[in-house]
Amino acid sequence: MGRESSDEYYVLDLCDEVLGERGLRQHRFDWLLGDPGKSGRRVRLPVDGYWPAASIVVEYRELQHGRPVPHFDKLDRLTVSGVHRGLQRVIYDARRDELIPSHGIRLVVITPAELDANSRGRLMRTRGSDLAAVRQVFAASTAVRRG
User: Fold this and answer.
1) Residues whose CB is less than 8 angstroms from the CB of residue 130 and which lie 6 or more positions away in sequence, other chains included
2) CATH code (residue 49)
3) I need a surface site. Which of 77, 81, 116, 131 has the fewest CB within 10 A?
4) Domain ranges, residue 94
5) How many domains are there within the chain?
């Protein structure tokens, strides 16, 4: 399954509809960097979607972002950060959570639990209710930001 048919892109397409414009997929900012590798080089970390006109980043955080999933965590291999992929994901999510708002960009996080998903976190793609849920997530994130 290609990225364009993934649950992530389905959610980003819903966000496009709610925001009235097409966002940039897998956008990379110069200031959002991964940990240095052996050479000292730091890779720019991608965000799932970025809407420049609205100054919004959307991160769709599947189940592996909130709980251990051996397939994604790769416990037998260490990353450039010196930790397994699961822990690196936690570190990089926290970095996004801190740096994106500090640069004046609204961060909206959407999870499968907020949409029509099965117990394994796969979206059922019930467009009407998912679209309403995305609208609700955006409204709640605005209320939190103002509050």
Assistant:
1) 10, 11, 14, 115, 116, 123
2) 3.40.960
3) 77
4) 3-146
5) 1
